[in-house]
Amino acid sequence: MEGRTARLHPVKMLLDFVSLIKTNFIIIFFLYVIHFGTDSKLWLASQYLFAVFILFAIVYNFFNWCFYRYTVKDEAIHISSGVIKKSERVISLSKIQNIQKRTTVIHKLFNISSITMETGESGDNGSIALAAVSKKEADWLETIASSVYDEEISEASEEEKDPDYIVETQNEREIHFIASKKDVLKASFTSLSFFALIPVVFTIYSNIEDLLPVTSIMGDWLKAIMRYWWMIAITLVIFTFIAIAFGVITTYWRYGKYQILSDSKRIYIRKGLVDEVAFSILKEKVQAIEVIQSPLKRILRLAEVKLVSAGETGEEDLKTNSLYPFLPVNRAYEIVHELLPEYKIIPNMTSLPKTALVAKMLRPSILWLAALIGLLIFKQNLWYVSFAVLLIVYILRLLDFVNSSYIVKDEYMQLKTGSLQTSLFLTKRSKVIEVEVAQSRWQRRFGLAEMGIVNRSKPIVHTSIKDVPYEAAVDFYYWYKMRGKDIRIDKR
Fold it and tell me: What is the pTM of this model?
């Protein structure tokens, strides 16, 4: 591959400046708005010092942009950076597993994107984050990083670098799901996003309260409203409409234009109405599939499907590794099978034996004992409250027994656990890097044991199920010992 060196887009300096102002907004507001025109030498000195700090940060960001370069050559990306201390990094393109592109409002103004390419490794060579590159450059980087660079590809024709080739490749992707307005509206109510307005209001109120005496003003308003029942009703109706509108807008902002696509090698997830996020993952690097259902989603028969991969899956708040979190269960299973035909969720699993229920119910509750001891020490007259805690513990244990099931079949293992929120975890034997079979003294009395597996991810994913029959745990152990015939070792 011919060497190609480039800098980040100059807008990177603007993004750094916006981030700097955003991080220090409270200090800036306090120094230059609240104490604007002050005669105090202390506040004047603070304003000058902070201005020097901002100026120094701007100069540093400028030189940081000047010295940051990346070069794509020899099937690798070479990163050169550092203002005071120079550093060089080389990451092979063949190691890149996950790719995430993000286009915010500022990015759109300048026709640029940020792109993050993740490998399965940790440390400095774990990822490449280019905060500002042109959209065309981001698409080109995504295309070359998505390719497998073996000897055949190194001899590929020059047409693969042509933008038309990129468009043609994207058109070959199969669309599996596009969120409609009805889907997003349903998601806004299912996610209870309208309740998010409450902490937002309290956060704004607490921040303003630190600067202005709003408590007395709000107190007068509340007193005026509380005088008449019809004013209370009107206020509640207005707040309810605002909360619902807030929930719908935030959900549409986050999950609008949601798409799930795939080609022969990768799965692509796109979402976001204003801030657009695109995530892709190599199919062969998917370590497991997790289907999560909250109590409300179980009632509405909806589910969230997560792809567990060896690399990181982008920023946590973006949840880019999640297929649409409000899919009907049957449709979610169909999409999983379409994307990853080798992964098929088995509906009929083995439930825990009745002895597991007895063991769960008779197992001493540390939480109840702690609550009882605490009440006897600090609130003796409320000792009976501890039995409410015990009742909750028993209800959760009963639900955990009802929801727990497992199956180990051929090269696949499927576990379902959870009391209120359930998690169904499906993986292949070749993707499991470690197993554990444990048996406590309590479980030994009932002929039970615990099975645990570990999958490669960031962080490492531990999954286990308690109180399975001991014989099933032993079979599971020997099932994993046969892993050798499922894995392939590349000899270089």
Answer: 0.74
